[in-house]
Amino acid sequence: MSSGQLIVLTGPSGVGKGTLVRSLLARHNDLYLSTSATTRSPRRGEVDGKDYHFVTRPQFEEMINQGELLEWAEYADNYYGTPRLDLEEKINLGLKVLLEIEVVGARSIKETFADALRIFILPPSIEELENRLKGRGKDSPEAITRRLEKAKEELAASGEFNHTIVNDDFKQALQQLETLIFPI
Ligand code: 5GP
What we know:
This protein is of the alpha/beta class. The chain has a single domain, classed as Rossmann fold, CATH 3.40.50.300. The protein is about 40% helix and about 20% strand. It is built from seven helices and nine strands. The strands form two sheets. Strands 2-7-1-8-9 form a five-stranded parallel β-sheet, sandwiched between helices. It has a four-stranded mixed β-sheet with strand order 4-3-6-5. A hairpin with a 2-residue loop joins strand 5 (about 70-75) and strand 6. Helix 5 packs antiparallel against helix 6. The model has no long low-confidence stretch (mean pLDDT about 95). The site of guanosine-5'-monophosphate has 14 residues, from strand 5 and strand 6.
């Protein structure tokens, strides 16, 4: 059976992971994005089963207890996790599967999927990250403060990853990602 590849993209909230992932998916039909489960409420425009599987805390805890999650973490007072079954099926079919997840979960992938390509996206600076979080208008001021505090902790872990990419110039960051995911 051909074997695919797991690619883990991580970095602090607001660093631009989501935009990079959307561009990658638009340019590569053979790339598949895993849909996570979360207990956070849907934001305007988010669709259940597409952006996330939106579940309650008891439902999420049941998923943990049943061993249904490859990894999970608590982030900004909510649970986030990667459903195992769908991902393993895709990898076994030979597909490249992308995870866009926070740092704690991304770290734990090293134990479960030693061969995964683990990439950390860095902001040009903490000040720039703060500007981006404020500019995207998705989160309350309290949530932004929490996410920035968390980001400082997360940045300290960047050295544990196979590769780091600074998302300063978007096009350049995208190109660097493509070179790692689709080596010539
Ligand atoms: P957001 O609430 O902005 O959608 O996501 C918050 C953070 O959770 C982001 O850093 C995102 O990458 C991360 N995240 C999304 N899905 C998962 C997941 O399945 N597992 C983990 N560990 N983090 C996730």
